[in-house]
Amino acid sequence: MTPLRERMLHDMQIRNLADNTQKSYLQQVSSFARHFRRSPELLGPEEIRAWQIYLTNERKLAPSSVQLAVGALRFLYRVTLRREWSDEDFPLPKRPVKLPVILSAEEVTRFFESVPSLKQRTILMTAYAAGLRVSEVVHLQVTDIDSQRMVIRVHQGKSRKDRYVMLSPRLLEILRLYWHEAHPREWLFPGDIPGHPITRSAVALACDVARRRSGIRKPVTPHSLRHYVPFRIMSCIRVIARFPGQMDNTG
Predict the structure, then answer these.
(1) Mean pLDDT, to the nearest integer, of 27-51?
(2) Residues of the chain with CATH 1.10.150.130
(3) 163-166 β-sheet, strand order
(4) Which of 10, 34, 132, 232 is the residue whose CA sits 20 to 30 A from 23?
(5) Closest CA to 125 of 167, 86, 79, 164
(6) Do the bridges between strand 145-146 and strand 151-154 make them parallel or antiparallel, or are there none, so unpaired?
(7) CA–CA gap between residue 66 and residue 53 (Å, rounded)
(8) Is 1 helix (H, G, I), strand (E, B) or coil?
(9) What number is the average pLDDT over the span 19-25?
(10) What are the b/e assignments for 225-239, b being 16+ CB within 10 Å?
(11) Which architecture, in CATH terms, is 3-89?
């Protein structure tokens, strides 16, 4: 690790940036340096401008991806290298405003019925019914489900903030069915490696498999599930009615 990379990493750690942000920023700066084959300390606003043009015209990256690259360089030069550069030295592309693709109630039901594994179905339903990010749902612990207050505790979500989200009675039933089947101890959704939660890539794969099995052609990802608010309650009711068995009061 170069001294500059280490210093930038320490600057991000001191400011308690999310682990994923730290990794992304370091990757973006490394790509920037490799492109020009020089240390970032020797590069300036003209190279940043040329880099943005390259990412936009040659790599065909979306504005959101270019914004991430610029954000990483802005942190490097303003925080780590302490260059007194203005916002004009880091122009950000405007992100187009697009309406989200929404699944109908029937499509949501068909999607969840296409998830063969109870564990995978419960993970995706939790993300859907509670509106959780995939990084949040995979890091849920058994003790985060508070059935007395009907809330789910989310540890260190976006911007490193803890928060509570509502736990619907229907989702609680689904979680109890899963708990009686799997008996998780620490992590609510443990992964293949003992002591570790399930990975985000495993959840993404399960989501993609279910989408293809359901025949739905609209894009469905763990992230997009949390945006299907209008049909959450109705769909959970319809799907859970097809699950066998009755859940006990465990919490």
Answers:
(1) 96
(2) 3-89
(3) 145-146, 151-154, 163-166
(4) 132
(5) 167
(6) antiparallel
(7) 10
(8) coil
(9) 93
(10) bbebeebbeebbebb
(11) Orthogonal Bundle (1.10)
Give the residue range(s) of CATH 1.10.443.10 domains in the chain: 105-240
What is the SS3 assignment for 151?
Answer: strand
* Residue burial 84-119, b: 16+ Cβ < 10 Å; e: rest: ebeeebbeebeeeeeeeeebeeebbbbbbebbeeeb
Most confident of 15-19, 176-180, 226-230: 176-180
Distance, in Å, from the CA atom of 218 to the CA atom of 249, rounded to the nearest integer, reads 37
More confident residue, 235 or 155: 155
Query: Could you give the CA distance from residue 200 to residue 126 in angstroms, rounded to a whole number?
Result: 14
Pick the CATH number of 105-240 from 3.40.50.150, 2.30.30.60, 2.60.40.10, 1.10.443.10: 1.10.443.10
191: which DSSP letter?
-
Q: Is the dihedral of CA 171, 173, 176, 181 positive or negative?
A: negative
Q: Check if the beta carbon of residue 178 is closer than 8 Å to that of residue 118.
A: yes
